[in-house]
Amino acid sequence: MDDRTILEFEVYSKYALFTEPLSRLGDEKITSMFPTYSALKGVVDNIYRKPTIKWVIDEVRVMNPIRMASKGLNHRMSDNKINPVNHTYLYKPRYQVRAHFEFNIDRPDLKEDYIIAKHAAIAKRALKNGGRFPITLGTTECVANVEPCVFGEDVSYYDDVEIQTAGLMLHSIRYPDTEHETDVISYFWHPKMKKGIIKFIRQEECEIFLNNGSIENFTKKYELGKNMRSVDDEYITYDQQEPMKD
Q1: Residue 183 in 3-state DSSP?
Q2: How far apart are CA 70 and CA 8, in angstroms?
Q3: What is the model's pTM?
């Protein structure tokens, strides 16, 4: 792995809600103890997203104590009636995340956009600016902040805790991302936190998965110069704002 593809950042919020099929009871939602792979991938995608690359979450470091808080909410139903529900959130979560990007081999037509140094520079600039899109932890009401960090620095509440587990937990959900796919698949795993750090496995390494059925494929087709800017063009734009180092 090229070290230039690595992105390290800290993400924090007042609340987080990492839900999964196993913990949903009707309209009630109960968060998982640990962040899911999908949720963290959503964070890094909103920092910098490009069809040319795919982000891989390598590990997460839990910085604050795992605490929960319940909130009562009023959901408006389709018949306009109010349905009171209870959601259980993580309270004041803070994480350090290490991720890296790989080129999207499903898009050989974008090969001329495979320029590591420029994607890395733009991603770091986007992180410094707080991301390109709104950052959330699990759901849209859990608005979060991101900033650069050095993974492993600072003190974690769990530095002296050898191992903590959370049982069977959702790893990620794969939606159709090529024009030939239609299935939505949920992947599950048994995460272990060692001294505050959870090392993620890849989807293909998960031994438990659930096919949620097929949906209509809405995969957007991108074409350089038409509905997608090349990384060269974006780099020039960013460099004009403030010179970047390759």
Answers
A1: strand
A2: 31
A3: 0.87
